[in-house]
Amino acid sequence: MAPVPLSTVDHMWTANMAGPLQFVVEFGEVLDADRIVEAYIETAREFVGADAALVQLDERTLAMDVDDPRPAIRATVAESTVPLSECLDPVEIGVGHVLARGRVVTRGDRTAVGLSMSHGLADGYGMFFFLAAWAARARGARFLSPRCDREVLTRPQARDRDSVDPDALRRAGFVTVEPDLELPELDVHTGRLDLAECEAQAEVSGLSTADLVAAGLFRDYAATKDTDLVTLACPVDIRRFVRELGPTYFGNAFVQVLIDVETERVRNASVPEIAGWVRDAIATAPGRIDDAIAELEAFLQVHGIAGLDRVWGYPPQSGFLVSNLSRIPASWLDFGAGPPVGLVTPGRRPRQDGCYLLPDPERAHSLQWASTLEHEPAARS
């Protein structure tokens, strides 16, 4: 079997601006590490590319070397005082490196399971889907098989174009920057978000809780900026809009909606008002899928792999990402000891502002967040 090319969408997330997706879950007892390791190897073989290295086929095409499986997984023992964030082996970005790495750490009377995955291999949903399948195998249960046909998210008919429309590229969820742009690394803070107020607002406003949460975080961001415009980046999963994908597709299956608003307008707006902007913008995502993929195809045709060094998912100096990874039930991450008792999202220090929302294993109607900002539990009115 020849190397499997990445989809057009996958290619855009192999750039160095897209750090690896990383997640560590902890369980309150000692689990069978050997069994979890074996389950990883089996799962990585089924999820095409998870045990492969990234290779370059030509100046416009990256692929997964599935003929040379290299499942990267190990079991170790550590002191119970070792931070949970250190219980994983980060993948390295670039050609020649394996696209996913797992690790099982017995730390005192607990067990940590860590996963690091290249963003070029999958999006956040795909990472959690892999984790859920790995967990099911580890406890001897069956789980849904993945769809791995990445040709669905390519548009070969756009490869004869000889130019890229910057506005269309932005509508596809990407911007370009100067190749020598230097950005400082940002600190990451963590906390807990009580959803009670957002849920109450959702009931009376007809807005979703997710849109209200994103709106509140975006207003927090606008309060810190002195730029004329600020941009909210909202990844929108397209699995439910593309029949050939469906909920079991493994790969990058989202378009990023960029919402540009005058900074002062965001500061002066109520959270429900901003949430309305978010809802309306996200509603345009299904209608832009084909055009977005075609524009990304044209970008690769014109600029090649080398051009990805200039690509960012949103304006790096005036944009804020809200990525909601909380929709995966914690019960799916049961490796044999029930749902996890703790979780973290370790990562390199980012160079763009953003916030990741995660399930809260300890409290109902609550989310955990990891953000470049400190979000105070202020009123969301």
TrEMBL record:
<dbReference type="Pfam" id="PF02458">
    <property type="entry name" value="Transferase"/>
</dbReference>
<keyword id="KW-0808">Transferase</keyword>
<protein>
    <recommendedName>
        <fullName>Transferase</fullName>
    </recommendedName>
</protein>
<dbReference type="InterPro" id="IPR023213">
    <property type="entry name" value="CAT-like_dom_sf"/>
</dbReference>
<dbReference type="InterPro" id="IPR050898">
    <property type="entry name" value="Plant_acyltransferase"/>
</dbReference>
<keyword id="KW-0012">Acyltransferase</keyword>
<dbReference type="GO" id="GO:0016746">
    <property type="term" value="F:acyltransferase activity"/>
</dbReference>
